[in-house]
């Protein structure tokens, strides 16, 4: 039997406080404390987020250790999110990870949140086939929209990315226009299941190469809704399912069009998705269909490893641990960090 290597992962880049324990790449626990406080503000309030992280971090880490049935003395290393994200939120996880690593006299490993979303595919799970190198990863989250070529664990290249809003923002801002609370992405997904995706047509943006743009779509949706409301003030209430289905269909079409282009350009047909928006049921369905119809091999992570979670931080930490890639205690949080950094 392999020597057990226990890694604690800590994630605090935005509005979720999460801690996970992995043993040799397998998840023993993955605790996530969501912050309900932001929903009434229509978006994440940075100051409230860092305060909530401060309250949550100790109990969340304690719970992760208890659920894994180990003690903190069993830990071999501590991995934490260095960035990108909200500075105040990142600082809570960073300083906690540093103090615990110092106290336990074990290695500290900094993790790039964007790489972690992608490397979540390498969490060991008997029911999950990991993608072979090289593969293309469509990273779709609240802050990012990218097509990344992944040649090795830590060798990534951005082939295309958004020039304005991220796809998660397109979902959340559209939801806000419809009067839905933050984050609206999962709600659009829920109502879309009951609606007709072809009920309303929204113009898709024209962006060159493999780049994306979502700000025009958001404006198009706003003007469309305002126009319809002038005719019928109850337009949203009476047609919510169809509106959500049509918005979701347009967004997923934009993503699929670019993926097809990327495959044509690179010849790589192993396609993975990552990030919070990859929880979306329509994108998951469409990728499964593409597997059947276009001969792609698609890799869709388990639902719980798509939105922000510490298991993805811990697996990235484990892969770095195997390569002895530790951080110095002077390491600092970085609000801006590219997937290639
Ligand atoms: O990766 P993530 O948890 O946080 C960031 O790093 O941004 O992604 C959060 C984003 C939010 O915009 C949220 O609305 C979106 O993912 N999201 C969804 C779904 N679940 C989460 N968007 C569409 N459909 C979903 N089912
Ligand atoms: Zn994320």
Describe the structure in brief.
By secondary structure, this protein is α/β, with parallel strands linked by helices. It has 9 helices and 10 strands. It has 2 domains: 6-122 and 305-322, ATPase, nucleotide binding domain (Nucleotidyltransferase, domain 5), CATH 3.30.420; 135-300, ATPase, nucleotide binding domain (Nucleotidyltransferase, domain 5, 2-Layer Sandwich), CATH 3.30.420.
How many helical stretches? 9
Distinct ligands: 5'-O-[(R)-(carboxyoxy)(hydroxy)phosphoryl]adenosine, zinc ion
Radius of gyration: 20 Å
CATH superfamily of the largest domain: ATPase, nucleotide binding domain
Estimated share of beta-strand residues: 15-25%
Largest sheet: 5 strands, mixed
Q: Judging from the principal axes of the Cα atoms, what is the shape?
A: globular
Task: Compute the average pLDDT.
Answer: 95
Number of strands: 10
Spatial strand arrangement across the major sheet: 3-2-1-4-5
End-to-end CA span: 35 Å
Order of helices and strands: EEEHEHEHEEEHHHHEHEH
């Amino acid at each position: 039997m392999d020597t057990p290597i226990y890694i604690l992962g800590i994630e605090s880049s935005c509005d979720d406080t999460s801690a996970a324990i992995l043993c040799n790449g397998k998840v023993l626990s993955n605790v996530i404390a969501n912050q309900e406080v932001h929903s009434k503000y229509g978006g994440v309030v940075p100051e409230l987020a860092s305060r909530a992280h401060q309250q949550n971090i100790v109990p969340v880490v304690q719970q992760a250790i208890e659920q894994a049935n180990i003690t903190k003395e069993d830990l071999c290393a501590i991995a934490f999110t260095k960035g990108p994200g909200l500075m105040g939120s990142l600082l809570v996880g960073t300083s906690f990870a540093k103090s615990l690593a110092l106290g336990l006299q074990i290695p500290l490993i900094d993790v790039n949140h964007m790489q972690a979303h992608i490397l979540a595919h390498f969490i060991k799970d008997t029911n999950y086939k990991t993608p072979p190198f090289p593969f293309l990863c469509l990273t779709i989250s609240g802050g990012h929209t990218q097509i990344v070529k992944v040649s090795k664990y830590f060798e990534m290249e951005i082939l295309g990315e958004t020039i304005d809003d991220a796809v998660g923002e397109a979902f959340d801002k559209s939801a806000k226009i419809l009067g839905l609370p933050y984050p609206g992405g999962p709600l659009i997904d829920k109502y879309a299941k009951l609606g007709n995706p072809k009920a309303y047509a929204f113009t898709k943006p024209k962006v060159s190469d493999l780049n994306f743009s979502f700000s025009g779509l958001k404006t198009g949706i706003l003007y469309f809704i305002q126009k319809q409301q002038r005719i019928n003030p109850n337009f949203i209430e009476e047609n919510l399912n169809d509106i959500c289905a049509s918005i979701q269909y347009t967004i997923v079409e934009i993503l699929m069009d670019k993926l097809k282009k990327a495959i044509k350009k690179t010849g790589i047909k192993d396609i993975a998705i990552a990030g919070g928006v990859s929880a979306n049921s329509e994108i998951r369905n469409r990728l499964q269909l593409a597997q059947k119809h276009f001969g792609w091999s698609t890799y869709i992570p388990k639902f719980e490893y798509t939105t922000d979670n510490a298991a993805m931080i811990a697996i990235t930490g484990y892969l770095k641990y195997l390569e002895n890639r530790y951080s110095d205690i002077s390491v600092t949080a970085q609000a801006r960090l590219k997937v290639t950094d």
